Amino acid sequence: MSKPKKAPSANIVWFEIPADDPARATKFYSAMFGWKINPFPGMKDYWHIDTGGSDDTPDGGLIVRKHAQQPITNYISAPSVTRGMAKVEKLGGTICVRKTAVPQMGYFAICRDPEGNEFALWELNKNAK
Q1: Side-by-side strand order, sheet with 73-77
Q2: Which tops the pLDDT comparison, 43 or 62?
Q3: The whole model's pTM is what?
């Protein structure tokens, strides 16, 4: 009898916190958790959150809120965003933002589960354009 195949790891690798007032949110999260929050190089209205954890714990981003009900979004690793989007739809979820490149870093897609919760798929790919 062969061993069952281990499922690929699907870990939270990044998160984004929306804020109406990024300076106020920076002050809160820095004081609350000791996170270091600084402008993300080359991006407007986006700040890197350094959680201070080891390399296998996720860091995140602080963003300007786009709409009143915008939730915190967790980015979950996926071997393929394209295949992941197909699986989301097959399982009754929806795609909110289709596959998008982050140049020289990877690809993401924002999805919604059947309960209305948003999450993102993230595919690491240094050749992304």
Answers
A1: 36-39, 46-50, 59-64, 12-19, 73-77, 118-124, 106-112, 94-102
A2: 62
A3: 0.87
